[in-house]
Design brief:
With 175 residues, the protein is mainly beta. It has a single domain (4-174), classed as Lipocalin, CATH 2.40.128.110. Helix content is 5%, strand content 58%. The protein is built from one helix and eleven strands, in the order E-E-E-E-E-E-H-E-E-E-E-E. It has one helix at 64-71; strands at 4-8, 14-21, 25-31, 34-40, 49-55, 59-60, 83-94, 97-106, 109-124, 130-141, 160-174. The protein has an eight-stranded antiparallel beta barrel. The radius of gyration is 17 Å and the shape is elongated. The two termini are 17 Å apart.
């Protein structure tokens, strides 16, 4: 069976996350530099082979001090672990939706994760390129990967939530 290779179109994609700050508001961030290798055997992406990496030094929360803290040993430890990686072990259709399962590595720690995914189908852009859309969402607990830093609040609770919500919007281009 013929395989098709896909690449991320970075101008139409976003690797985003949100974390509770002071227990009541969310801080959002993105990774600006990332890469993926995606191979499919059919047009519905079922059983797609997906490998993804993001450059930790490209983290952006719109605050340079916070970004530098996230890159430090308190969190991602970018000096020793410059990339986060994900390697899919399955991408299966579940009714109208998909489920993406794979190994996520942060700070040198690899854990299996499972995320709901939405495949938006295929479309030709005005220049004749075949595009595909994927939305991947889900939650992880940052402490599972050794991102343990926190600070207690005077009023109770902590500064940084443990749950990280992921929102990944990908527009792929057929190679």
């Amino acid at each position: 069976m013929a395989t098709t290779k896909w690449a991320i179109d970075p101008t139409h994609s976003e690797i985003g996350f949100k974390v509770k700050h002071m227990m009541f508001t969310n801080v959002s961030g993105t990774f600006g530099t990332y890469d993926a290798t995606i191979t499919t055997e059919d047009d519905n992406f079922e059983n797609a082979v997906i490998e993804f990496s993001a450059d930790i030094n490209s983290i952006n929360t719109n605050n340079a001090d916070r970004d530098n803290h996230l890159k430090s040993g308190d969190f991602f430890d970018a000096e020793n672990h410059p990339k986060l990686t994900f390697k899919a072990t399955s991408f299966n259709k579940d009714g109208d939706d998909y489920e993406l399962t794979g190994d996520l590595t942060l700070r040198g720690i690899t854990k299996s994760v499972k995320f709901p995914a939405e495949f938006s189908g295929l479309m030709k852009d005005p220049w004749g390129n075949t595009k595909a859309g994927l939305n991947i969402s889900g939650k992880i607990n940052r402490k599972d990967w050794g991102l343990n830093w926190n600070s207690a609040l005077e009023t109770g609770g902590v500064l940084v939530g443990e749950e990280v919500k992921l929102n990944i919007e990908l527009q792929l281009i057929k190679l």
